[in-house]
Structure formats: structure tokens, C-alpha cells
């Protein structure tokens, strides 16, 4: 049913959020306004999932998010924020709060950069925990 | 009518739950289905009647509705004892890509067929009525066969689905197209049977640099939208339930209460806040609520 409508909706969505060209016949200025509104809403969702990452950018958050994600098909606020945080951290452009936020996320979840992050496995959770425990006493009585 | 309690309600959001708990005169809450886990309904949602409001069902998708999303709507309705579920006349994904928000459909027979099929499939799984909400959209498709009223009349004729009439959406759609919002309300209501409007939304909007109005839900409801609400209510046999949508940048509690009272006054309802716990700042009731706030609209 409605194969034509499905195809045309797909072309429209691609134009609005995934860098596709505007379908013929639509008002280009109105599509551009819609594109900006969708990107703003998306940046807001990522800010909610990564509050310190957004706070780190301050008033530049929308612009920073847009520079990275305009024309990139949405793939979920959790992963989008994670990718942006990793890239900024690698470039040395991440403030202390956002670095802590990223580190906490990396410690709790395994994210391969392509698929949904998942809880680290039991072995790695044990390793993280025991490393904390090992590092605890070491900072105490250091003789012996 | 259609099970939604009469009076003024508000969209329940966890960020303002504590403030809303204190407003004894609220008639109902609407909760976003995608933010609710049916097994963990917050206590403050159990204080009042609830309407479940979906935002990602995408009933305008020719691929059909996702049975998992339909089941979630049904589970949310059951868990909250909702009298009604509502969704949008829109699509939100296509070609495997999530757009991230509600997008308009072409007003064509083809789109009507898709909506009717998806609404029928959804209703088959719900124990309560499904109301449909026309959205705010910044653009139209180039191949419309009907105007908005004609499209909605046909949809109502074919589904019998009650309407969730968002007065703020009508307002911004009309203004963004150079039309008179009152004329759009009149054209819409003229072709619907009495009682077709299940309830109404109102919300604030903001203008962008080009002067286009965006339905933000984060700005105060301007007087012009309240006036359009009054105009709408005057066309209906009885004042419908009306609900304020506020999705962020929450104002201080006293300002939110004043806004709820202003919405109720415009709708011909009793003031929900004057009857309840006194406003936080005892003194000085604001004479002209909803008029302050960032940026005139």
C-alpha cells in the first residue's frame, strides 16, 4: 500500500535530517526552518542525556552540536553525545565536568562506537572493582 | 465528553510534578506514553484522571504502526486507568530514519487511506477511545488535494475518531500561512458533529529570525492564543476539557499557577489554582498573568 507515499516520506526525512537534497515542489525556506527546528530539538535531547557535555559548551552548545551532526541521520541521544564527547576529549577540548561525565559512562558501559552501549561484562566489572579495591589500601599504609 | 474529565488540566512532566501536586483544582493530567513505564507509574500521576499521549506511533507511516508501540500505548492506558489515548496526525520516521519529531502528511486520499488503516489497527488493541491531534507544521506538501479542514473532516467521517484540537497549533499554522486563525477554527468546527472535540491543548510559541512561529511549549501562552481558545469554546455545545502543554524552561510556581488560571478563564472553567493551596508568594495576585516572559510574541 502507498509505496509512492513511503518513498516520498523517506526522501523528505532524508532531506530534513540526513543531508539529502530537498524534494521537488517544497518551499525550500520552510524546509530549512524545519531542518533547524529538528536539529535544535535533537541537541536538546542530547543535552538531557549528557548534561555536563552541553554545559561545557555553554551558549555554544547548539552550534557545537550542529557543526557535528547537521546532515547526519539521527542515531540516538546516548550514542550521539558519546561520540561527540570522545571526539572533543581526543582533541583536548573537553572541560573537567564533561571529562568526568565521559569517564563515568566509559566505566559503566562498553560502547564500540557503532552499536548500543551495553553494561560491561562481569569480568570487566570485577576488574574495575578490584582495581579500585587494590588502589584503595595502596594509598593507605604504604610500607610493607 | 469522551471520558476526559471537564475542566483544566496540564501535561504531567516529572520536572514540575511537585508543583502540580499542590494544585488541587486540576481536572486531569496528560502523560507522554514514551516517557512512562507501565510498571512504574509515579505516585503523583495517580492523584488525578490521566490521558495517555503518544508522540512516536507515526500513524501516517504507510509501513503500518509498530505493534510494540501500540501495545505500549495500551499498557500505559491500563496502568494509569486512562479514559483516552491520543496521538498525532503525522509521521515521525521513514526509510529507516527517525526524524525526531512530528512531520506533516500530504492532505491526499492516499494519506487518508494510510491513516484510516493505522488508526483502525491501533484502536483494535485499545480498550479506550483514540483521539487524533492535528500538528503544527512549518511546511505543506506540494500535492495537497484538500485543505486542513477538508482533510480532517474526511478523516473523522471515516474513523469516527474524536479530535484533540490544539488551539496553539491552529494559531501558528494560520499565522505562518497568512491566514486568520479564527477562520481556520470556524472552518474546522463547521464540518464536525457536536462532541467531536475530545479535548483541547494550548501552549506558547516563539518567532524565529524570519518571523516564523514555532510551537515551542517553552514560552508563555500569549493572549492571542487564549483569545482563540475562548473563540473555539464558544463554538462548542459545552466547554471542552483544556490542557496546558509546557515542556521545559518552567517558570516559577506562582507564574505557572497564574497561567493555568488564565487558561481556565479563557476556557470558561473554574480557576484550578484559586481553589487549591494558596500561591507560594501569598501576597499580590498578578492582575495580568501570562503577559510577562522573554520576548513578546
TrEMBL record, chain A:
Extract the ranges annotated as region (Disordered).
110-144
Q: Bias regions of kind Basic residues — which residues? A: 117-132
> Which top-rank group of organisms is this from?
Bacteria
Q: What single Pfam family name could you report for this chain, choosing any that match?
A: SCO6045_C
Positions of the SCO6045-like C-terminal domain: 6-89
Task: State the InterPro entries in the record.
Answer: SCO6045-like_C
Protein's name in the database: SCO6045-like C-terminal domain-containing protein
Q: Which organism is it from?
A: Pseudonocardia alni
Tell me the lineage of the source organism.
Bacteria, Bacillati, Actinomycetota, Actinomycetes, Pseudonocardiales
TrEMBL record, chain B:
Q: Tell me the segments the record calls region Disordered.
A: 275-297
Biased-composition ranges for Low complexity?
284-297
- Pfam annotation, one family: MbnB_TglH_ChrH
Q: Which InterPro entries match?
A: MbnB/TglH/ChrH
Q: What is this protein called?
A: DUF692 domain-containing protein
Amino acid at each position: 500500500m502507498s509505496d509512492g507515499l513511503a518513498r516520498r516520506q523517506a526522501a523528505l526525512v532524508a532531506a530534513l535530517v540526513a543531508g539529502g537534497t530537498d524534494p521537488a515542489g517544497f518551499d525550500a525556506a520552510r524546509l530549512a526552518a524545519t531542518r533547524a527546528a529538528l536539529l535544535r530539538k535533537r541537541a536538546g535531547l542530547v543535552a538531557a542525556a549528557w548534561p555536563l557535555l552541553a554545559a561545557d559548551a555553554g551558549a555554544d552548545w547548539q552550534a557545537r552540536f550542529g557543526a557535528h551532526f547537521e546532515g547526519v541521520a539521527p542515531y540516538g541521544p546516548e550514542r550521539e553525545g558519546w561520540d561527540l564527547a570522545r571526539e572533543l576529549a581526543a582533541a583536548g577540548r573537553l572541560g573537567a565536568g564533561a571529562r568526568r561525565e565521559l569517564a563515568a559512562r566509559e566505566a559503566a558501559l562498553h560502547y564500540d562506537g557503532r552499536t548500543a552501549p551495553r553494561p560491561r561484562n562481569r569480568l570487566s566489572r570485577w576488574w574495575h572493582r578490584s582495581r579500585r579495591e587494590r588502589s584503595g589500601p595502596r594509598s593507605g599504609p604504604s610500607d610493607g | 465528553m469522551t471520558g476526559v474529565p471537564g475542566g483544566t488540566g496540564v501535561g504531567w512532566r516529572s520536572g514540575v510534578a511537585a508543583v502540580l501536586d499542590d494544585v488541587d483544582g486540576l481536572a486531569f493530567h496528560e502523560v507522554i506514553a514514551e516517557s512512562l513505564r507501565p510498571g512504574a507509574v509515579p505516585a503523583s500521576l495517580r492523584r488525578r484522571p490521566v490521558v495517555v499521549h503518544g508522540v512516536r506511533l507515526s500513524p501516517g507511516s504507510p509501513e503500518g504502526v509498530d505493534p510494540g508501540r501500540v501495545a505500549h500505548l495500551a499498557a500505559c492506558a491500563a496502568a494509569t486507568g486512562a479514559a483516552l489515548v491520543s496521538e498525532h496526525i503525522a509521521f515521525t520516521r521513514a526509510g529507516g530514519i527517525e526524524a525526531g519529531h512530528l512531520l506533516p502528511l500530504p492532505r491526499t486520499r492516499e494519506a487518508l487511506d494510510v491513516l484510516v488503516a493505522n488508526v483502525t489497527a491501533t484502536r483494535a488493541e485499545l480498550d479506550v477511545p483514540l483521539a487524533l491531534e492535528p500538528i503544527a507544521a512549518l511546511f505543506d506538501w506540494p500535492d495537497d488535494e484538500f485543505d486542513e479542514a477538508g482533510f480532517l473532516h474526511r478523516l473523522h467521517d471515516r474513523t469516527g475518531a474524536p479530535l484533540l484540537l490544539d488551539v496553539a497549533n491552529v494559531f501558528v499554522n494560520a499565522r505562518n500561512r497568512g491566514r486568520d486563525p479564527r477562520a481556520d477554527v470556524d472552518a474546522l468546527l463547521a464540518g464536525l458533529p457536536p462532541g467531536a472535540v475530545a479535548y483541547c491543548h494550548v501552549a506558547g510559541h516563539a518567532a524565529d529570525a524570519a518571523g516564523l512561529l514555532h510551537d515551542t511549549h517553552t514560552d508563555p501562552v500569549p493572549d492571542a492564543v487564549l483569545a482563540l481558545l475562548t473563540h473555539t469554546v464558544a463554538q462548542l455545545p459545552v466547554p471542552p476539557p483544556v490542557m496546558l502543554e509546557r515542556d521545559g524552561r518552567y517558570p516559577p510556581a506562582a507564574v505557572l499557577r497564574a497561567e493555568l488560571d488564565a487558561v481556565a478563564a479563557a476556557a470558561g472553567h473554574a480557576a484550578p489554582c484559586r481553589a487549591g493551596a494558596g500561591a507560594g508568594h501569598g501576597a499580590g495576585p498578578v492582575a495580568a498573568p501570562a503577559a510577562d516572559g522573554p520576548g513578546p510574541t
